[in-house]
Structures are given as structure tokens and as C-alpha cells.
Automatic annotation (TrEMBL):
GO terms for cellular component: cytoplasm. Residues 20-279 form the Alpha-carbonic anhydrase domain. SUPFAM superfamilies: Carbonic anhydrase (SSF51069). Belongs to the alpha-carbonic anhydrase family. This is Alpha-carbonic anhydrase domain-containing protein.
């Protein structure tokens, strides 16, 4: 077996980064940790994750989200027959994700949702056995490959940020702009013009301070390519039950509501690792 990537101190459940080859004996820092994650074995996605069994890292750089919801740029929300799909109209508008487990910059391509008929089986990833009503995916491609299509052919091609959505009684006003769009795309292949404000619900301190899990995995829709660095935030985002019900009202090609667009959890292959990342509050 090759060098082990991590050593676990069972008393603290903290991963000690593998010694680097730096001749000066300096400690591994953020980018080195990201390199270690980039070499982890990939699995099929989604997976069920037990947080207490994940090595915990706190030395990664904070995740950085630039230009997502505050640009005012034009975008569309589309019912493509299998999900609600958001993308910017002008392809030169490029929100950028970097930091955390990622090496380099990843360019935002699209956001979409997964859901089911109830409030507990609509998420794809399952953390500590908890199911939620829906899961939202922000799909990005590695800037060095130039396009999503080209990036899918590479193990470091995509980065997908996942948010678990939990229903609560009261509507969440941060979803108002998105909800306006969802109300207009009930029919299959319908499109609504929106703006970047439809993403404003993600504007939260949790992005740079919240804990998340990361692992190397796959697309959860065909062709299931293992090209994704997954980043799943631990804390669910709360959404009003009526707001969430708009997803369940979206109609597929047969004019019936799309009941379920969730891939079941997949088995972890031997030697597969999921890292639990506690983000350290960014220093000002
Ligand atoms: Zn997805």
C-alpha cells in the first residue's frame, strides 16, 4: 500500500495531515490539504455519511463564493422536465468558487434541485441518517478545462456544492425571488426570466463559517461520471412548506408532477474517505 494519506488520532478524532515533502519541515497548510483531498479515491454518489466516522479537518482555507447573488445579472429558471434549473443568460457571467478542498477556481454553470413526495426522502445525501425534503446542487467546472463538457472527463473536473433543504411552517423570505420563478414554470419546458437575486437565499455566514463534508464522487444523473468534488453543508437551509411544495408541483413531460428525482445512496468502495471540515472564521 502506498503512503497513507491521513493518520487518525483516535483520542481527538482529528486527522493529522500526512507529512509533506517540504525539506524545511514546515507544517502542511491549506493548499496542501486540498492536494491530499484531490488524491482521494472517488465513489459513486450520493452516499450516506456518518459524521462521527469522518476525519475532521479544520486547516483548510475558507470556501470563497464570488459574484453569485449580488450582480443583478439576468438569468433563467427552466423546468426541463426533470428538475428546476437556474443558469445565467449571458455565459460571460461567471460566479467563481474557490478555497476549501478545491485547487484553483471553479466556474458556476447551473443550479438545480432534487426532491421527492415527502419531507424526508427528497435529499440525495444523507447525513447521520437524517433525510430532508430536498437538496439543491450548485454545479461548477474547473476553469482550466474551459467548459463543463470538457471538465466532465477529468477527476478534478467539477465541484458541486449541496445544500439540504428542511421544511418549516413559516415561509423563508430569502426564497421569495426563487419562489416567484418556480410559480411560473409549472409546465414542462417552461422558462421564466429571473436575476441573480434568485440565488440570494444562499447569502449566509454559513458559506464561509459553516461545517461541511467533502469527498470525491460522481454525477448523480447519467452518465454518473466520477468527476466531482462534493461539498455538502451540514446545516440544512430552512424553507417554508408551501415554498417547497412548488417543486413538487412542477410537471414532467407527461404533464404529471415530477414526484421524485433522487438517486438512491450508493455503497462506499473500500478505502473511500469523506472529510468533515470545520471552517475557521476568516480573519479580517
Ligand atoms: Zn443534482
Amino acid at each position: 500500500m502506498e503512503n497513507r494519506i491521513v493518520k487518525i488520532d483516535p483520542r481527538r478524532m482529528t486527522v493529522i495531515p500526512k507529512e509533506t515533502s517540504a525539506s524545511d519541515g514546515s507544517r502542511a497548510n491549506g493548499p496542501h490539504d486540498a492536494e491530499q483531498i484531490s488524491r482521494l479515491r472517488a465513489s459513486q454518489s450520493p452516499i450516506a455519511i456518518s459524521l462521527s466516522r469522518c476525519p475532521t479537518w479544520s486547516s483548510l482555507d475558507p470556501l470563497r463564493f464570488r459574484g453569485y447573488w449580488d450582480s443583478g445579472e439576468k438569468a433563467i429558471l427552466l423546468n426541463n422536465g426533470s428538475t428546476a434549473y437556474f443558469t445565467f443568460t449571458d455565459q460571460s457571467v461567471r460566479p467563481i468558487l474557490s478555497g476549501g478542498p478545491l485547487l484553483g477556481e471553479y466556474i458556476f454553470e447551473q443550479m438545480h434541485f432534487h426532491w421527492s413526495v415527502d419531507d424526508f426522502t427528497g435529499c440525495e445525501h444523507v447525513l447521520d441518517g437524517h433525510g430532508y425534503a430536498a437538496e439543491c446542487h450548485f454545479v461548477h467546472y474547473n476553469s482550466k478545462y474551459g467548459s463543463l463538457e470538457a471538465a466532465v472527463g477529468h477527476p478534478d473536473g467539477l465541484a458541486v456544492v449541496g445544500f439540504l433543504l428542511e421544511t418549516v411552517d413559516a415561509p423563508n423570505p430569502r426564497f421569495d425571488r426563487l419562489v416567484e420563478g418556480l410559480e411560473a414554470i409549472k409546465k414542462n419546458e417552461s422558462v421564466k426570466n429571473v436575476t441573480s437575486e434568485a440565488l440570494s437565499w444562499m447569502d449566509s455566514d454559513d458559506l464561509s463559517e459553516g461545517s461541511y463534508v467533502t469527498y470525491k464522487g460522481s454525477l448523480t444523473t447519467p452518465p454518473y461520471t466520477e468527476c466531482v468534488t462534493w461539498i455538502i453543508y451540514e446545516r440544512p437551509v430552512q424553507v417554508g412548506a408551501e415554498q417547497l411544495s412548488l417543486l413538487r408541483q412542477l410537471e414532467g413531460p407527461n404533464s404529471e408532477p415530477i414526484e421524485r428525482n433522487v438517486r438512491p445512496t450508493q455503497r462506499h468502495p473500500p478505502g473511500h474517505s469523506v472529510i468533515y471540515v470545520k471552517q475557521v472564521k476568516a480573519k479580517l
